[in-house]
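Researcher: Quick one. three chains, 708 residues in total.
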Amino acid sequence: MSNACAIVGIGQTKYDTKRIDVSLAGLVREAAVRALEDAGLTFRDIDAVVLGKAPDTFEGVMMPELYLADALGALGKPMMRVHTAGSVGGSTAIVVASLIQAGIHERVLTVAFEKQSESNAMWALSPRIPLQPTVVFGAGGYFAPLIRAYIRRSGAPENTGVLVALKDRQNANRNPFAHLQMPGVTYDDIANSPMLWDPIRYHETCPSSDGAVAMVMTTESLAKKAPTRPAWVHATAMRSEPTAFAGRDQVNPQAGKDCAKALYAQAGITDPMAQIDVAEIYVPFSWFEPMWLENLGITPENEGWKPVQEGATALGGKLPINCSGGVLSSNPIGASGMIRFAEAAMQVRGQAGEHQVDGAKIALGHAYGGGSQFFSMWIVGSEKP
Amino acid sequence: MSDAPKEIVKRIETPIHLTFQFTPGVGASRFLRGIAEGRILGLRCTQCAKVYVSPRGSCPKCGAPTLDEAKVTDRGTITSFSIVRVPSEGIDIELPFVCASILLDGADNTFYHVIREVPVEDVRMGMRVEAVWVPREELRASLESIRHFKPTGEPDAPFDSYKEHL
Amino acid sequence: MTRSSGVGAASMWAPYDLEYPYKRSVGPVLGRFFGGLKNRRFEAVRASDGRVICPPPEADPVTGEALGGEGGWTEVGPGGVVTSWSWVPSPRPKHPLQKPFAWALIQLDGASTALLHVVDASGESAMKTGMRVAPRWRDATVGDIRDVECFVTEGTR
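Model:
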């Protein structure tokens, strides 16, 4: 049996299109210092630092973990970097949890970031490689056909994506850190926004953001000395599969299903819809909410759109999803997964302010990356497991 | 030095130039040589017998080599698609255009290409399409030797025939 | 376009050039350093252990505390001492000088640490650890490390 692991500090930067007021070092420090303050600690109290971010080509700094070591107070300490595409924020948190659970370190600082304004994610993700037997159409061109396939297969009403986007945009208005703020946003604002990659509308997509998020994770004995209520790690899971193979279900990937199954088994969850109080799941395009509800086993296959239509995933609903506004409202790619994990922890700590779900005790954090091929998830709770 | 700075620089430009020699591998090279001759080559997995177009040389599921050539035509079925209405860097195709996932007859995997010669509103899942090649003398080892796909006019393929390829 | 892989089945290959035009926001500390270069001055910060560091980092390398606050700055150089160097006999296209030169660590006068830059010397035999050098500024400075074209033996231009 592994040791208990608790989250005792969380810090976020304001997410924005261009944080040109800070360097990469300044950006990660902003989140790190806030997480340390939340935990009542300083850099001196930290045993090791774990950094997560997406491809180096986004900022053009090779091995940023080395360049950022002094900014994160890592001198003389173990420092490492994790990379699993868009899911990296989640898998970084899971690496840190395992360092605590295995008894290797007692207090670990983890930070995930992206500073997309230093480049253009479109070309950093889609270089024109010679002799490559593929034609590239960017992230929207890649994911839009999967969404169309989902709509056809499930028979979901066509406005489901609009409903998700409206909810997430309204939630973002309650989160001071969220990048996109749309006070007074209406259903028609979303529904009448231009089609970019039909069936994906402009307001159903995520922005490009600069931002960082940090957490301090620790052991049971040190968590008891923390100034504020800790969140406890109840379960963690990661799975992956190749981008493409014959017969691959890209709409509902097997790796995601297996990951959720393993996660619930660890956490003792048999009825996720009833037992999970709030979830932060990685939804870069609105339709991924119903798709992931099915992949996560929260609803039966082809029924993920039903709770959306019923309002069950809104604040105050049966299972509120992305109360922070989600990836749809803030997307510093490398940080986006850890923001989901951190927001889940904030909910069970009662720390989520205007977007708090009353009395949340069990929360799910979820991230995915690549061509829907890397998954990382955790369940956190207000009580020690 | 206690005097205030004369100037604070906000941003600097740091271009990066990288020069590589790209080697697509033996499997992809066989496929690309076929394209340069105006034919689509599939390679069959020695273990699960699935046929891959634009093969990488090994089966992504079994890890076994894909050695045997399999007959794949330049006709197929649209399994899903998107109507691209927004420009992207590096894509110089007139908007709007349809980006479709295509399952070629004889193949077991899909790939993305452009659909033309049909109004974008008329494109459907299950629509039958065929490759439109560049002129013979312009053929080269790139999927861009296929300009686009266009409807064949055949009846749509039933959903069940391609539902395992979404 | 093809070459043998040695087992009879050849792979193709092709040149693959990538160029990314990054715009880096440098933050207040390096921003002041680059602003100093534009005005032909080297600005440095004082660390918790009393060392003077140039180029200046945002965080103390020992304690991790923020550096570069009010009163934490000092000017160093413009002359300095080469503490180590490496001769480049055949410059590459993107190198700062298109003739043989040295990459060198240069400890500017008043600084405790060294700055990596270029020394334009007549040949490898003209390079010595401990030699004194001074910057050669480019005509129109913009606030970039390349505002210093290179360092040269002190007293030359």
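The mean pLDDT of chain B is 90.
Researcher: Thanks, that's what I needed.
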